[in-house]
Amino acid sequence: MNEPSLHPRVVAVVVAYNRRDLLVEVLDGLAAQRTPVAKVVVVDNASTDDTVDVAQAAGDLVDLTTLARNTGGAGGFAAGMALALERHDPEWLWLMDDDTVPTEGALEALLAAVAGSDVVAAGSRVIWTDGTEHPMNTPREKPFVSKSERVAAARAGGIAVRSTSFVSMLVRADVVREVGLPIADYFIWNDDFEYSTRVLRGRRGLHVPASVVVHKTKVLGSTDADPGPRFYYEVRNKLWMFRRSQSLSAFEKAVYGASSIRRWLKTFLRSDDRAVLRDGWRRGYRDGTRTRPRPNPMALAGLGAASEAVRSVEG
Description:
Radius of gyration: 19 Å
Largest sheet: 10 strands, mixed
Shape: globular
Protein backbone atom coordinates (compact mmCIF):
# COMPACT_ATOMS: atom_id res chain seq x y z
CA MET A 1 0.00 0.00 0.00
CA ASN A 2 1.43 3.38 -1.06
CA GLU A 3 1.95 5.96 1.67
CA PRO A 4 0.28 9.33 1.10
CA SER A 5 2.57 12.09 -0.13
CA LEU A 6 3.74 14.66 2.39
CA HIS A 7 3.74 17.33 -0.31
CA PRO A 8 0.99 18.93 -2.40
CA ARG A 9 0.48 17.36 -5.81
CA VAL A 10 2.26 19.63 -8.30
CA VAL A 11 2.08 19.21 -12.07
CA ALA A 12 4.56 21.21 -14.14
CA VAL A 13 3.53 22.61 -17.53
CA VAL A 14 6.30 23.30 -20.06
CA VAL A 15 5.64 24.89 -23.45
CA ALA A 16 8.26 23.90 -26.01
CA TYR A 17 9.11 25.19 -29.47
CA ASN A 18 12.30 24.35 -31.38
CA ARG A 19 14.72 24.48 -28.44
CA ARG A 20 15.47 20.82 -27.92
CA ASP A 21 18.82 21.37 -26.18
CA LEU A 22 17.31 23.71 -23.62
CA LEU A 23 14.33 21.38 -23.16
CA VAL A 24 16.79 18.66 -22.11
CA GLU A 25 18.06 20.96 -19.34
CA VAL A 26 14.56 21.95 -18.26
CA LEU A 27 13.37 18.35 -17.97
CA ASP A 28 16.56 17.33 -16.17
CA GLY A 29 16.01 20.20 -13.74
CA LEU A 30 12.42 19.16 -13.10
CA ALA A 31 13.41 15.53 -12.55
CA ALA A 32 16.05 16.62 -10.03
CA GLN A 33 13.72 18.65 -7.76
CA ARG A 34 14.18 17.92 -4.07
CA THR A 35 10.41 18.10 -3.77
CA PRO A 36 9.28 16.01 -6.72
CA VAL A 37 6.67 16.99 -9.28
CA ALA A 38 3.90 14.46 -9.91
CA LYS A 39 4.01 14.89 -13.69
CA VAL A 40 5.41 17.20 -16.36
CA VAL A 41 2.98 18.14 -19.13
CA VAL A 42 5.03 19.14 -22.18
CA VAL A 43 3.20 20.95 -24.96
CA ASP A 44 5.13 20.79 -28.22
CA ASN A 45 4.01 23.80 -30.27
CA ALA A 46 4.49 22.11 -33.68
CA SER A 47 8.29 22.13 -33.42
CA THR A 48 10.34 21.26 -36.49
CA ASP A 49 13.35 19.93 -34.56
CA ASP A 50 13.44 16.74 -32.45
CA THR A 51 11.65 18.25 -29.44
CA VAL A 52 9.25 15.29 -29.49
CA ASP A 53 12.11 12.79 -29.21
CA VAL A 54 13.62 14.73 -26.30
CA ALA A 55 10.32 14.75 -24.39
CA GLN A 56 9.70 11.07 -25.04
CA ALA A 57 13.21 10.19 -23.87
CA ALA A 58 12.45 11.72 -20.48
CA GLY A 59 10.29 8.72 -19.61
CA ASP A 60 7.11 8.31 -17.60
CA LEU A 61 7.47 11.62 -15.79
CA VAL A 62 6.48 13.42 -19.00
CA ASP A 63 3.01 13.60 -20.53
CA LEU A 64 3.66 14.89 -24.07
CA THR A 65 1.11 16.56 -26.33
CA THR A 66 2.12 17.71 -29.81
CA LEU A 67 -0.06 20.42 -31.33
CA ALA A 68 -0.75 20.52 -35.06
CA ARG A 69 0.07 24.22 -35.23
CA ASN A 70 2.11 26.73 -33.29
CA THR A 71 -0.24 28.45 -30.82
CA GLY A 72 2.44 30.63 -29.22
CA GLY A 73 3.26 30.64 -25.55
CA ALA A 74 -0.25 31.79 -24.64
CA GLY A 75 -1.97 28.98 -26.52
CA GLY A 76 0.55 26.45 -25.33
CA PHE A 77 0.00 27.30 -21.68
CA ALA A 78 -3.78 27.34 -22.08
CA ALA A 79 -3.68 23.88 -23.67
CA GLY A 80 -1.12 22.48 -21.23
CA MET A 81 -2.90 23.75 -18.14
CA ALA A 82 -6.21 22.34 -19.36
CA LEU A 83 -4.60 18.95 -20.04
CA ALA A 84 -2.93 18.96 -16.62
CA LEU A 85 -6.24 19.68 -14.90
CA GLU A 86 -8.14 17.03 -16.84
CA ARG A 87 -5.56 14.24 -16.69
CA HIS A 88 -3.51 14.60 -13.52
CA ASP A 89 -5.64 16.05 -10.69
CA PRO A 90 -3.11 18.65 -9.48
CA GLU A 91 -3.33 20.83 -6.41
CA TRP A 92 -0.85 23.27 -7.97
CA LEU A 93 0.35 23.96 -11.51
CA TRP A 94 3.95 25.06 -12.07
CA LEU A 95 4.35 26.95 -15.35
CA MET A 96 7.55 27.55 -17.31
CA ASP A 97 8.95 28.01 -20.81
CA ASP A 98 11.40 25.64 -22.44
CA ASP A 99 14.30 27.98 -21.62
CA THR A 100 13.57 28.08 -17.89
CA VAL A 101 15.87 25.78 -15.94
CA PRO A 102 14.85 25.33 -12.29
CA THR A 103 17.49 24.85 -9.62
CA GLU A 104 16.96 21.73 -7.50
CA GLY A 105 15.35 23.61 -4.63
CA ALA A 106 13.09 25.86 -6.70
CA LEU A 107 9.82 24.02 -6.10
CA GLU A 108 10.66 23.24 -2.49
CA ALA A 109 11.08 26.96 -1.75
CA LEU A 110 7.84 27.91 -3.54
CA LEU A 111 5.82 25.35 -1.61
CA ALA A 112 7.41 26.31 1.69
CA ALA A 113 6.47 29.94 1.10
CA VAL A 114 2.80 29.23 0.34
CA ALA A 115 2.27 26.47 2.92
CA GLY A 116 -0.60 27.10 5.32
CA SER A 117 -1.48 30.45 3.73
CA ASP A 118 -4.13 31.86 1.41
CA VAL A 119 -1.57 32.66 -1.28
CA VAL A 120 -2.83 31.46 -4.68
CA ALA A 121 0.21 32.15 -6.87
CA ALA A 122 3.95 32.45 -6.36
CA GLY A 123 6.88 33.23 -8.61
CA SER A 124 10.59 32.49 -8.47
CA ARG A 125 13.65 34.70 -8.55
CA VAL A 126 14.80 34.65 -12.16
CA ILE A 127 18.48 34.93 -13.02
CA TRP A 128 20.40 34.81 -16.28
CA THR A 129 23.20 32.40 -17.15
CA ASP A 130 25.81 34.61 -15.43
CA GLY A 131 23.84 34.72 -12.18
CA THR A 132 22.59 38.30 -12.50
CA GLU A 133 18.93 39.20 -12.03
CA HIS A 134 17.02 38.89 -15.30
CA PRO A 135 15.29 42.24 -15.97
CA MET A 136 12.74 40.63 -18.29
CA ASN A 137 11.02 38.83 -15.42
CA THR A 138 10.82 41.41 -12.65
CA PRO A 139 7.53 40.98 -10.75
CA ARG A 140 5.29 43.94 -10.01
CA GLU A 141 5.07 44.53 -6.28
CA LYS A 142 1.53 44.96 -4.99
CA PRO A 143 0.77 48.66 -4.49
CA PHE A 144 -1.05 49.89 -1.39
CA VAL A 145 -0.56 46.49 0.23
CA SER A 146 -1.96 46.18 3.74
CA LYS A 147 0.40 45.86 6.67
CA SER A 148 -0.93 42.40 7.50
CA GLU A 149 -0.29 41.13 3.97
CA ARG A 150 3.17 42.71 3.85
CA VAL A 151 4.11 41.17 7.20
CA ALA A 152 2.73 37.75 6.20
CA ALA A 153 4.70 37.86 2.95
CA ALA A 154 7.89 38.79 4.78
CA ARG A 155 7.43 35.97 7.30
CA ALA A 156 7.13 33.55 4.38
CA GLY A 157 10.37 34.92 2.96
CA GLY A 158 8.61 36.68 0.12
CA ILE A 159 7.23 39.93 -1.26
CA ALA A 160 3.56 40.61 -1.98
CA VAL A 161 3.08 41.01 -5.74
CA ARG A 162 0.34 42.08 -8.16
CA SER A 163 1.72 40.11 -11.11
CA THR A 164 4.30 37.49 -11.93
CA SER A 165 5.75 35.71 -14.94
CA PHE A 166 5.23 32.39 -16.68
CA VAL A 167 8.97 31.93 -16.17
CA SER A 168 8.25 29.79 -13.08
CA MET A 169 4.76 30.60 -11.81
CA LEU A 170 3.13 28.32 -9.24
CA VAL A 171 -0.66 28.70 -9.28
CA ARG A 172 -3.36 26.91 -7.31
CA ALA A 173 -5.41 24.55 -9.46
CA ASP A 174 -8.78 25.42 -7.98
CA VAL A 175 -8.20 29.09 -8.77
CA VAL A 176 -7.34 28.19 -12.36
CA ARG A 177 -10.69 26.43 -12.65
CA GLU A 178 -12.37 29.52 -11.19
CA VAL A 179 -10.76 32.23 -13.35
CA GLY A 180 -10.11 30.19 -16.49
CA LEU A 181 -7.03 29.78 -18.65
CA PRO A 182 -4.58 32.22 -20.27
CA ILE A 183 -5.99 33.89 -23.38
CA ALA A 184 -4.67 31.89 -26.33
CA ASP A 185 -5.10 34.65 -28.91
CA TYR A 186 -2.46 36.77 -27.17
CA PHE A 187 0.00 34.32 -28.82
CA ILE A 188 3.11 35.92 -27.26
CA TRP A 189 3.76 38.78 -24.84
CA ASN A 190 1.65 40.05 -21.97
CA ASP A 191 -0.25 36.77 -21.69
CA ASP A 192 1.35 36.18 -18.29
CA PHE A 193 0.77 39.80 -17.23
CA GLU A 194 -2.94 39.53 -18.03
CA TYR A 195 -3.26 36.07 -16.53
CA SER A 196 -1.35 36.64 -13.30
CA THR A 197 -3.18 39.91 -12.59
CA ARG A 198 -6.48 38.11 -13.26
CA VAL A 199 -5.53 35.35 -10.83
CA LEU A 200 -4.33 37.86 -8.23
CA ARG A 201 -7.17 40.37 -8.42
CA GLY A 202 -8.57 40.24 -4.89
CA ARG A 203 -6.18 37.42 -3.98
CA ARG A 204 -2.67 37.11 -2.61
CA GLY A 205 0.53 36.38 -4.52
CA LEU A 206 4.20 36.11 -3.57
CA HIS A 207 7.59 36.64 -5.11
CA VAL A 208 9.88 34.04 -3.51
CA PRO A 209 13.60 34.95 -3.79
CA ALA A 210 14.66 31.60 -2.28
CA SER A 211 13.22 29.83 -5.32
CA VAL A 212 15.68 30.30 -8.17
CA VAL A 213 15.38 29.51 -11.87
CA VAL A 214 17.72 30.31 -14.74
CA HIS A 215 16.10 31.97 -17.76
CA LYS A 216 18.42 31.05 -20.63
CA THR A 217 17.52 33.76 -23.11
CA LYS A 218 20.05 34.50 -25.85
CA VAL A 219 20.82 37.93 -24.41
CA LEU A 220 20.28 39.66 -21.08
CA GLY A 221 17.62 42.26 -21.82
CA SER A 222 14.50 43.83 -20.39
CA THR A 223 11.07 44.22 -21.92
CA ASP A 224 12.01 47.57 -23.49
CA ALA A 225 14.84 46.06 -25.54
CA ASP A 226 14.30 46.44 -29.29
CA PRO A 227 11.61 43.84 -30.11
CA GLY A 228 11.56 44.25 -33.90
CA PRO A 229 8.38 42.92 -35.57
CA ARG A 230 7.15 41.46 -32.27
CA PHE A 231 6.32 44.98 -31.15
CA TYR A 232 2.97 44.37 -32.84
CA TYR A 233 2.05 41.83 -30.13
CA GLU A 234 3.19 44.15 -27.35
CA VAL A 235 0.91 46.93 -28.56
CA ARG A 236 -2.08 44.83 -29.57
CA ASN A 237 -2.09 42.70 -26.42
CA LYS A 238 -1.68 45.64 -24.04
CA LEU A 239 -4.62 47.38 -25.73
CA TRP A 240 -6.66 44.19 -25.58
CA MET A 241 -5.83 43.90 -21.90
CA PHE A 242 -6.57 47.50 -20.95
CA ARG A 243 -9.77 47.62 -23.02
CA ARG A 244 -11.18 44.09 -22.64
CA SER A 245 -9.75 42.29 -19.62
CA GLN A 246 -11.15 42.48 -16.10
CA SER A 247 -7.80 41.60 -14.56
CA LEU A 248 -7.09 45.20 -13.51
CA SER A 249 -9.17 47.89 -11.86
CA ALA A 250 -9.81 51.15 -13.72
CA PHE A 251 -7.17 52.88 -11.59
CA GLU A 252 -4.63 50.14 -12.29
CA LYS A 253 -5.32 50.35 -16.02
CA ALA A 254 -4.56 54.07 -15.93
CA VAL A 255 -1.32 53.54 -14.00
CA TYR A 256 -0.06 50.58 -16.02
CA GLY A 257 -1.23 52.20 -19.26
CA ALA A 258 0.89 55.27 -18.58
CA SER A 259 3.83 53.02 -17.73
CA SER A 260 3.39 51.15 -21.02
CA ILE A 261 3.41 54.37 -23.02
CA ARG A 262 6.67 55.43 -21.37
CA ARG A 263 8.17 52.02 -22.13
CA TRP A 264 7.07 52.17 -25.77
CA LEU A 265 8.68 55.60 -26.17
CA LYS A 266 11.90 54.31 -24.63
CA THR A 267 11.81 51.28 -26.93
CA PHE A 268 11.33 53.53 -29.99
CA LEU A 269 14.17 55.86 -29.03
CA ARG A 270 16.58 52.94 -28.52
CA SER A 271 15.61 51.10 -31.71
CA ASP A 272 17.93 50.71 -34.70
CA ASP A 273 14.97 50.17 -37.03
CA ARG A 274 12.20 52.57 -36.13
CA ALA A 275 10.31 51.87 -39.33
CA VAL A 276 9.63 48.33 -38.11
CA LEU A 277 8.37 49.65 -34.77
CA ARG A 278 6.16 52.23 -36.48
CA ASP A 279 4.60 49.46 -38.54
CA GLY A 280 4.15 47.31 -35.43
CA TRP A 281 2.53 50.23 -33.61
CA ARG A 282 0.16 50.99 -36.50
CA ARG A 283 -0.99 47.39 -36.90
CA GLY A 284 -1.06 46.74 -33.15
CA TYR A 285 -3.14 49.85 -32.48
CA ARG A 286 -5.55 48.95 -35.28
CA ASP A 287 -6.08 45.37 -34.11
CA GLY A 288 -5.99 46.26 -30.41
CA THR A 289 -8.79 48.78 -30.79
CA ARG A 290 -10.90 47.15 -33.51
CA THR A 291 -10.77 43.48 -32.55
CA ARG A 292 -10.92 41.33 -29.44
CA PRO A 293 -9.40 37.92 -28.59
CA ARG A 294 -11.55 34.94 -29.42
CA PRO A 295 -12.78 32.56 -26.72
CA ASN A 296 -10.20 29.84 -26.09
CA PRO A 297 -12.36 26.96 -27.37
CA MET A 298 -12.53 28.79 -30.70
CA ALA A 299 -8.88 29.88 -30.80
CA LEU A 300 -7.67 26.35 -29.96
CA ALA A 301 -10.18 24.39 -32.03
CA GLY A 302 -8.98 21.44 -34.11
CA LEU A 303 -6.19 20.38 -31.76
CA GLY A 304 -7.60 17.04 -30.62
CA ALA A 305 -7.26 16.21 -26.94
CA ALA A 306 -5.99 19.71 -26.16
CA SER A 307 -9.14 21.27 -27.64
CA GLU A 308 -11.33 18.88 -25.67
CA ALA A 309 -9.54 19.69 -22.43
CA VAL A 310 -9.86 23.44 -23.01
CA ARG A 311 -13.58 23.10 -23.70
CA SER A 312 -13.96 21.02 -20.54
CA VAL A 313 -12.25 23.65 -18.38
CA GLU A 314 -13.80 26.74 -19.94
CA GLY A 315 -17.09 25.38 -21.25
